[in-house]
Each structure stands twice: as C-alpha cells, then as structure tokens.
Amino acid sequence: MKDKKFQDFPKADKQAWIDQATKDLKGDDFEKQLVSMAIEGFPVFPYYAVEDTKETQWIKTNDNRINPASDIPGNPPRYWTNAVEVAHEDPVVLNEEIKLVLQNGADGLILSLSEKTDLDTIFKDVLFPYISIWIKPTEKPYTSLKFFSDWLQLQGLEPNAIHGGVLWDGLAKGFQQPIQLDVQLDRIYNIHRLFEAFPNFRSICLDTTIYANSGGSSVQQIGYGLAALVELWDGLTERGAGAEELYSNLFIFTAVGSDYFMEIAKLKTLRIALSHLAELYHVNLPPEEVKLFSVSSKWNKSAQEPYNNLLRNTTEAMSAILGGCNVLFVEPHDKYSQVPDAFSKRMARNISNILKEEAHFDKVIDPAAGSYFVENLIEKLYTEAFTSLKAIEAEGGWWQAYANHLIQEDIRKMRRKKIARHAEERFRKPGPITEGIDQHEAFIEEGYQLRSISQESLLNHSL
Fold this sequence. Notes:
Layout: H1 14-24, H2 30-34, E1 36-37, E2 43-44, E3 81-85, H3 91-102, E4 108-113, H4 119-122, E5 132-137, H5 141-153, E6 163-166, H6 181-194, E7 201-202, E8 204-207, H7 209-212, H8 218-238, H9 243-248, E9 250-256, H10 260-280, E10 292-296, H11 306-323, E11 327-329, H12 342-357, H13 372-394, H14 398-403, H15 406-426, H16 433-446, H17 456-459
Parallel strand pairs: 3-4, 3-11, 4-5, 5-6, 6-7, 8-9, 9-10, 10-11
Antiparallel strand pairs: 1-2
Helix pairs in contact: 5-6, 8-10, 8-13, 10-11, 10-13, 11-12, 15-16
C-alpha cells in the first residue's frame, strides 16, 4: 500500500500521561484524585507503563504456567474443575442429586462424610475417573477419612483414577476451636498416609479462606498461609514425611473476593510464592504443578440482597479463573438468607459453565500475563507477604503467633479497617464532618455481623 492508513501511535512516556491527566484535573492534585491506597497498604496508580516493569521482569517467567498441558489432543489450553457441594441425609436422594449435578455441568463433588455414610448408595453409577471428589470430614476426621480410604481400595479402581482431595486443615481448625499443635500434626500426617496409594488425591489442605472470610487482606492471606505451611512442613518432616511427597500432596484452599484485579494478582502470587518456598526445601515445584482450589468469598455477601450476591459471585469466579484456579466452587447466592433452592444451585453451577462455554475463558491459558498493572500488584503482594513471613518466623513461627493471639488481633484490625472504609463510602455525602463520623461509628458498632476468627470465647481459651 502506498498510503499507510494505520500508523502506530506515537510513543509517550508515563510522565506525559500524568501531565495530561493533571491538566485535565484543572489544578487538582494528581495523587490525591487518581492514586488510591489499597487496603493492603500500598498505592495503586491509575496507569502503568513500561517504566513500571523494571522490578517485575522476574514475574514474566511464571506467565502461561497455570496448568499442565493436556495429554488429550484437542483439549482447550485452560482447564478448571467446576465443583458443587451436595448434601442430604437420605443416601438415595443424595445419589440422585449427585447424578443430577454431574449431568448438568459439574465435574467435581464436595461432600461431608462420616464413618456411617452409605458410600455404596450415594456413589451408585458414579464414574470416578471422570470427576473429582472433595471430602469434608465430620467431627472425627481421621476415622471418617479412613472409612472412605478403605472403601476406595475395595472398588477395584486404578489408583490414578481417583481425583480430588481432603477439605480439612488441622491448623486452621484452631480458629474455630482450641487445638494442640502436636495432636493436629499427628492427624494431618496420618491422613496423608491414608491416601498414599492415590497420587491424584491430595490429602494436605492449606486453608487460607479463614483469613479472607474474616476480613483479612490479600497480604495477610498469603503471609499467614505461608507461615502455616512452614509450621506444617516442619512438623510433618519431623514425623518422617519427605518434603517432595508433601508438596505433591498439597493444595491451597482460597477464598476470592470482589477486588477484581487484586484477587487475580493474589492467586498468581500464591502460585509463585509456593513454588519459591518449595525451593527452600530443595523441592522442584513448577508453578503449573501448584493446585489452587478457589471458592467465592463469604466476607462480602448479604442476607438482604441475594441477587447482588449473584453478581459478586460472577466477578469472583472471573477473578479466580483469570488468576489460575484449578478448581472453582461458587456457593449459591441465597445461601445466607435461606436454604438454597434448585434455582440458586443451578445458577451457581452455571456461572463456571457460562464463563467456559460462552465467554470462552478456557481458550486462552493466561489472559492476565503481561499486564503491567497485575504484574505490579503481584510484585507488591509478594514482597509484603514474604516480609510478613520473615517477621512471623523471627518471632517463633505461625504457632507462636496463633497462641499469642497476634494473628487474631491483626485480622481484627484489618476487618475494622475494611468496615470503616465501607462505612465512609456508604455515608459519604454533604454535611457536617462530625455527623459522618458518628454514622460511621454507629455502622461499625451495629455490626455488619461478619464472621470473626477472633471471637472472645476463642481469644480467651487456654492453649
């Protein structure tokens, strides 16, 4: 073509963009108007350019490494499991529900099991090689899981055909009831041994949802999660487990909130951080081998506005998928106001399917790769989380921080900070400043009635 119709845009550095934005603001302060402060404590700019990537080049080595390449020709480059929780006292009815969800878009099951569960009935006609099973044990975790493990071994299935894991973290249980470290480590170790014959069934769960659903920041979720993992690893290796086998048996259970890009960055940071932490134990754990099980957050859900919950669930699912989750569980949007009905269960199940089949989220392996914005969030989260981890280790480790209630107090402060920020946004309107402050305090004290891991009964128990 003689006439070039489509010329490249002229290059402009970041300062030129800032100068133009300042001009458009007509003298208002650029940073005050356009630079926000993340709840995690670092500034978030409205615009990132190539100049901002000097400290993030190392992150690029982790791009497009979200899941291992499929052995099946023609499979899409991106895959995640659509998990659904099913429950019913009648095993026959439960079996019907299991078959219903598996025939309508789900390929993962979440079930609460005990040693009295009629496994033959509830799993009748269920083809294990094509789904994953995630078990939530009841009050006696080892007994329940041994019952399930023994039943599996009687089914004559290939060990590689059993996929899923155990949704139970013995250390995280300490935020719901008093625990003893040695007792919990023994339980985790024995449960790990139960499923050694099933290489694709992961029996060690690192639960970070407890921090997220109590109001913790992304930095706290990563930092305390990694600290708990170090505590766990030290205890299990002392009991004779090898670091490499432990990493191959581990998955991270994480809640995804509504801060869209921050949640994408959080999941990608978790994957990178776990890979780097494994190196300290002389274990080669490629980022794509890290297993992330993501669930929609409880923190931001409302009992009065269930359909707003539906919208939040959708954006949280998008963040989880773009952040690289391997398993996605979307809870029904009306769960906090009533017993979920067939409609809300179907809507929750279909969010994952719509994002896959209609939005084509499975067609690109890592859409967030190369984003200057996301890379800078990852760099900040990674740095702050490892700073937190080092500080916890210097004070004696996760258990000491838990036993001294430092974790509980830190999460409580962040929770109140989030509530105060929400109150400020909700009540921001013309009027006397003191009136606004009074409204904020009243809003905070009235409740918001959010889950708390620092209840007084918990804080005062003897350890």
